[in-house]
Amino acid sequence: MARRIHTLAGYIHEYQRSVLNPDDFWSQIAETFHWRKRWDKVLEWEFETPSVKWFLNGKLNITDNIFERFLYTKGDKPAIIWEPNDPEEPHKVISYKELYKQTCQFANALKAQGIQKGDRIIIYMPMVPEAAVAMLACARIGAVHSVVFAGFSANSLSDRINDCSAKMVLTSDGNFRGAKTIPIKDVVDEALESTSSVEKVIVYERTKTPVNMVPGRDIWWHDAIDGISTENTAETMDSEDMLFILYTSGSTGKPKGIVHTTGGYMVYTYYTFKNVFQYRDEDIYWCTADIGWITGHSYIVYGPMLNGATTLMFEGVPTHPHPGRFWEIVDKFKVNQFYTAPTAIRALEAFGNEPLQPYKLDSLKVLGTVGEPINEEAWHWYHDHVGKGRCPIVDTWWQTETGGILISPLAGITPTKPAYATLPLPGVQPIIVDNDGNELKGNSVEGNLCIKFPWPGMLRTTYGDHERCRQTYFSQYKGLYFTGDGVKRDEDGYYRILGRVDDVINVSGHRMGTAEVENAINEHPKVIESAVVGYPHPIKGQGIYAYAICDLSDRSEENLKKEIRLTVSKIIGPIAKPDKIQIVPGLPKTRSGKIMRRILRKIAVGEVDNFGDISTLLDPDVVEKIIEGKDTAS
Ligand code: WT7
């Protein structure tokens, strides 16, 4: 096992080493893994095309490094503690040995259903241990998993299936979410009406919701593993073989499939988990994310398991059946590291301190946050009332594209500052540039956050469209990876993430492209044109504010807004529903037809003067009309 950083001086030393000699730095960490063949070269890269390769020609399997590596020392250690949605239902504890068996068995079952190395498999499942088994089984046989959050609509699901020509979908009969049961197999059925690549669907029985099993296509999970061997030798993978695809929204068009590969991702998630959370062997670690997001991939499944950690998986939601549910679980399992999102913190804070009263929370050692900038208020509440002032907060900044955490304190080591992600992890070289791409050197500067040197966990491409990867991340500023985030480096050299500088809205830590939401709104036959912006929302961080030009001749405004929300729900999923819709007579556009979002953003927050130069607008009067109608937004 690689050494853990213990002190601030140790961090500074490791950081310098990682910059001066990245090859040595990363190969020393990589050496602690089991490779079937050692790499020939640590790194080959250029950020023009771009082309990034780590641990070239190394051969390995990531699940070997979770299971075979730990079987003798950690076989009986709990790998997963699973807490169901309903507190009355018994929890499950699954040891490394047991998880290994289930993974091998399901890997064999996938093969028996015709899956081969390189095939793409969509996982559209609830938060049950079998979802982790599914991911690991894919990795075991070299199939590429693409987990789709089970709250996405049939339309979003079929887009993703089609984009990667998935051969199989893994799902369940239903999904328990708080008081609701969502029939997700029906969603899969609907999605498959507009796809042709899927040959088989494996259905895990969870809710006993009646489903329609299509003969020859659909098979129950328990039937698929019936009589199947629990022994399996993992496929040999190249370092740069694809491990998974995860779709994420950008500022234009449809979501793109972010591609992560095997060797670098393994080394990076292992190293960052160990150091950021300062995980120790007996600790119980809990990340509340869903496996449908990158956080669930890197810090529920791969990062913790590569460290032989005990990772808690929770099926439910923070407020069901009561707003103390998270704290109840912390006490029940004596959770030591707790990792959640600012939106959850704010939502729970809104219930006051009473829901915390019955619980001791004295097992907690480290608190984490991720997904969006955390406001100072929420940071203090988390620190004082959840952590009782005892626990360092790791504000971890990263992205689907980065694979793992890039800027974050190391728990208990890096002095924290409320709302600051603090300092880059070893191996991470941030650079701040102005809009023309000039580097802003020194401290007390603010600009666009880029990274100038590769790290092992970074994306390699966007599935099926490398040019899109280049365009989106590597073309804005020559020779740099552009994150899309604004950042400040303060007088101490600490980084504070200021939020997106592109047309991306961060709603409850979920990334929404404005163009994607607009396209969905425009699908409603009575919508002529729309423009979407983000605005500050007390719980969600940002809410979605939609301006729409509509034909109101045959329905009320209220009904039309309802229908628009339904349309968005159907096309993307409920998470993309606009919080506010304002029906407008026109949109502010430049003479070349570009919507001036800057103005719409200001109106949404009630700043109705000081628009700057609007003389280039096609129809300046329209701004006045939108301001007048602002109170009709609902
Ligand atoms: C965007 C990435 C990384 C997993 C969750 C979201 C924002 C993320 C922080 C943080 C401020 C943050 C950024 C980033 N973000 N973490 N600690 N402080 N902002 O993954 O959907 O890929 O979104 O989330 O804007 O670009 P994602």
Q: How are the SSEs ordered, and which strands pair?
A:
Blueprint: H1 8-20, H2 22-30, E1 41-46, E2 51-56, E3 59-60, H3 71-74, E4 78-83, E5 92-95, H4 96-112, E6 120-124, H5 129-141, E7 144-147, H6 154-164, E8 168-172, E9 175-177, E10 180-182, H7 184-192, E11 200-204, E12 218-220, H8 221-224, E13 237-238, E14 242-248, E15 256-261, H9 262-277, E16 284-287, H10 294-306, E17 310-314, H11 325-333, E18 337-340, H12 342-349, E19 366-369, H13 376-386, E20 393-395, E21 430-433, E22 445-451, E23 461-462, H14 466-474, E24 481-489, E25 495-500, E26 504-507, E27 510-513, H15 514-522, E28 527-537, E29 541-550, H16 557-571, E30 580-583, H17 597-604, H18 621-628
Parallel strand pairs: 4-17, 6-7, 6-8, 8-11, 11-12, 16-17, 16-18, 18-19, 19-20, 29-30
Antiparallel strand pairs: 1-2, 3-13, 4-5, 9-10, 14-15, 15-23, 21-22, 22-24, 24-25, 26-27, 28-29
Helix pairs in contact: 1-2, 4-5, 6-7, 9-10, 12-13
The structure holds 5'-O-[(S)-butoxy(hydroxy)phosphoryl]adenosine.
5'-O-[(S)-butoxy(hydroxy)phosphoryl]adenosine is lined by residues 248, 293-295, 370-373, 395-400, 421, 483-485, 497, 499-500, 506, 509, 511.
Task: Provide structural commentary.
The chain contains 18 helices and 30 strands. Helix 16 links the parallel strand 29 and strand 30. The model has no long low-confidence stretch (mean pLDDT 96). The protein is α/β, with parallel strands linked by helices and 634 residues long. The strands form 9 sheets. Strands 5-4-17-16-18-19-20 form a 7-stranded mixed beta sheet, with helices on both faces. It starts with 7 loop residues before the first helix and ends in a 6-residue tail after the last helix. The chain folds into 2 domains: 376 residues, 3-Layer(aba) Sandwich (Rossmann fold); 128 residues, GMP Synthetase, Chain A, domain 3, CATH 3.30.300.30. The structure holds 5'-O-[(S)-butoxy(hydroxy)phosphoryl]adenosine (WT7). The site of 5'-O-[(S)-butoxy(hydroxy)phosphoryl]adenosine has 24 residues, from helix 10, strand 24 and strand 25.
